[in-house]
Design brief:
Elements lengths: L1 E6 L2 E4 L4 E9 L4 E9 L6 E7 L4 E3 L7 E6 L4 E6 L8 E9 L4 E3 L3 E6 L1
Parallel strand pairs: 2-11
Antiparallel strand pairs: 1-3, 3-8, 4-5, 4-9, 5-6, 7-8, 9-10, 9-11
C-alpha cells in the first residue's frame, strides 16, 4: 500500500503563486511516476503534471510555462509550483502515484481557489 498526503492548497488572488507538496509513504518500491491531477466543480479529473523516475515530465497545455513539477526522491515527496494562477485553475488537486504495474494511488486532495 502507498499513502499520499497533500498540503499547500488555499486561497490566492489571480496572478499569485502556491506550492503544493505530496509526501508518499508505505511500499514505494514499484512507484515509477508521481504527479498531480485536478478536478474542478462539474468537470472530470484531469492531468496537471506528472514526472517519472527517469525525469521525464508531462504537463497539461493549460499549465505549461506556469506550473513546475519536481520530485525529491530522498524525501519521497513531489511538489507542484504554481505561478501566475488564474481563476480557471480553481479545483481540488490530487496527488497520484503509479506503479510499474499501472496501479494508481491517490491522495485525499487539497483545494486551490483562485479569486479574480
Amino acid at each position: 500500500q502507498v499513502q499520499l498526503v497533500e498540503s499547500g492548497g488555499g486561497l490566492v488572488q489571480a496572478g499569485g503563486s502556491l506550492r503544493l507538496s505530496c509526501a508518499a509513504s508505505g511500499n514505494l518500491f514499484n512507484i515509477n511516476t508521481m504527479g498531480w491531477y485536478r478536478q474542478a466543480p462539474g468537470k472530470q479529473r484531469e492531468l496537471v503534471a506528472i514526472k517519472s523516475d527517469s525525469g521525464s515530465t508531462n504537463y497539461a497545455n493549460s499549465v505549461k510555462g506556469r506550473f513546475t513539477i519536481s520530485r525529491d526522491n530522498n524525501k519521497n515527496t513531489v511538489y507542484l509550483q504554481m505561478n501566475s494562477l488564474k481563476p480557471e485553475d480553481t479545483a481540488v488537486y490530487y496527488c497520484a502515484a503509479t506503479t510499474t504495474y499501472s496501479r494508481n494511488y491517490w491522495g485525499q486532495g487539497t483545494r486551490v481557489t483562485v479569486s479574480s
